[in-house]
Amino acid sequence: MNYWLVKSEADCYSIDDLKKDKKTHWDGVRNYQARNFMREMKKGDLVFFYHSNQDPIGIAGVAKVITESYPDHTAWDKKDQHFDPKSTKEKPLWDMVDVAFVKKFKEVIPLSELKKQTGLKDMKILQRGTRLSVTPVIKKEFEIIEKIAK
Questions:
Q1: Among 36, 60, 35, 65, which Cα is nearest to 50's?
Q2: Overall pTM surpassing 0.85 (yes/no)
Q3: Does the keyword Nucleotide-binding apply (predicted)?
C-alpha cells in the first residue's frame, strides 16, 4: 500500500463534501508531476485530504483510492474550468482517480503543527516551493499524522 496527500481548496471541494458524496473523481490536476504521482496510485492506497486556502490550512481527513488513474474527461469539456485544448480523447494528457471517504479528523491538523514534527521534516508538502496538488507520503509520515489526529 502507498500513501498520498491531495490538496483542495475547501470552498471548492472539502472533506465535508466528500463525506456527503461518499466518493468522487479527483479531476482537474494540470501539473505533469502531480499527474504522474496520480498515475502511481493503486486501488486501496490511503490519501490525506488537505485543505488549502482556508484557516487553518492543513490535513482534514483521510480518503481511499477506489479506482486507478484514467483519462480526465474535464480536459475535453470547453465549458469546464479545467479544459485543455491540447488534450484529446485520442491523446489524453491528464488523468484522474476516484477516491472514497474514510474519515474526517476531529480538527484540521494545521500546517504549522505539521512543521513542528521532526519526523515530518522531509514531507513533500513541507518543502519550500512545493505547490503540487498530489504528493506521495511515506508510511512513517502517515503514521505520525494519524497519531496527531487522535
A1: 60
A2: yes
A3: no
